[in-house]
């Protein structure tokens, strides 16, 4: 079960990262705050948050490059890696889509490398959040507040452009 969730996560990250330039494709693994009391964001926190998102772009770009290199080095094409991953997750093998034992071995080794890259990226992002003067929990809270407030989303968009 855990392995299939990891495969879904990796495929989601890879699928998004190779196709969409979004603000944060690999989210830091931070536990959401329950019953948070602060619903306002100071100007300083907004600037810190915007700076962090801008720095995430560079980290994500490097992460995408590393994952692409790991897949290539693993001996599978990007398309084949994704196809095997989708089939592993869905348990939906159709004619002509099944992977050979050799391909499955390459896939597993490559997946392990990609998981390491993702874990390193998450650690980097967490360190970056703290280095910018925010606590991880507050970063998550700000993210939730902005997600619910259209005006803050527009303000943030202007700050990161």
Automatic annotation (TrEMBL):
<dbReference type="Pfam" id="PF13767">
    <property type="entry name" value="DUF4168"/>
</dbReference>
<keyword id="KW-0175">Coiled coil</keyword>
<feature type="domain" description="DUF4168">
    <location>
        <begin position="21"/>
        <end position="90"/>
    </location>
</feature>
<protein>
    <recommendedName>
        <fullName>DUF4168 domain-containing protein</fullName>
    </recommendedName>
</protein>
<feature type="domain" description="DUF4168">
    <location>
        <begin position="98"/>
        <end position="155"/>
    </location>
</feature>
<dbReference type="InterPro" id="IPR025433">
    <property type="entry name" value="DUF4168"/>
</dbReference>
<feature type="coiled-coil region">
    <location>
        <begin position="97"/>
        <end position="124"/>
    </location>
</feature>
